[in-house]
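Morning F.,

Quick status update on the modeling queue. The single chain you submitted on Monday has been processed. Sequence for confirmation:
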Amino acid sequence: WDAINKNKFAQAFVNGEVGTGFIKHLILGGVDIGDKYYIPDYNQSASLDPVIPFNIYKPDNSPVTLPVFDTKTPLSVRGKDFVSTEKYQSFYVQDELGFFNQKLRLTLAGRFTHATTTDPYAGSTNDRKFTPRFGLSYSVDPATSVYAVVDQSFLPQNGNIFGGEKVKPVTGNNLEAGLKRDWFDGKWSTSLSAYRILKNNQLVADPNNHGDPGAGYVIQLGQTKTNGVEFDARGEIVRGLTLMANYAYTDSKINKDTDPANIGAPVPGFAKHVTNTWLTYTIQRGGLKGLGFSTGYQWQLDRFPWSLDTRTTDLPNYFRLDAGANYQITKISLALTVNNVLDKYLYSGGHESYLSSTGATVYSWQAEAPRNARLSIGYKF
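Structure tokens below.
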């Protein structure tokens, strides 16, 4: 369909340093404003295969007649009944107080947000929320620090709930604690963190399409609880050879809900285990000095699809290997990246099957591209 999307944003901030006795203050304050406007023409549509269904395996044998749309009438007229907007204004202030020559740091912050949305299907919202943030960090020694953070979140949203129920904004409470350390005179750095995130009013796809799968109905969960652990390591193995690696464990479940049957169910759309590794080698001497090679993988295990009905990990595990090379010649840079080196058939996500209004079984899988390459050329003036 024909559509126009206009986004306008404005930001301004001020920061500085102030001392009060033996306490050092790092102060930050600012405003953040956004205005989003979207207008589509949903009235004009046509089937690409009205006679012979399009065959993805034999596209050349599937005749397709492109529809002809009216584009002379301004889109502002054709799409006036489908306009959606989102506007927000926020103000924030933060003070990081340093004690004992900055070894102990206390962060006090807050943000006030006013957000309004309009949607032709989900109606309008008008929400205001103040979200505080508290943080504490301590430098055990020059190479080791520990921290803890407590904050709240607020995210306006809209959606089409069957029956016309009003959508509430997402609110949450977050707890995080961690440890950071440098090793071998700074050649290696590691970080370990654990967190708990409580989210209220999160939207997920409605497993019951209510006879209209095209309506895109959603349901609003009561509260979700996510516990996780993350580990990162990066550093130089030998001169010119560097490694970046991380691992994340996530367990996300519905904690509270008006429907008791949903309590304990996994939140749609996450993987329990995700690990990434990226290895880079750059030639340090000789005529090819500066030529670099890199390779890495992403591995996701125990993935849950986007549908609430599926409570098992029926999405296959995900493993993707990428590689690249880069070279700098004076002011010219060359970079070659190859994605999905193993040419695997990868699913980035999927919905559980459901019955359409005509009784047909409908399901969807979102597949990624097969092996592909990108060559980039840059010039520095």
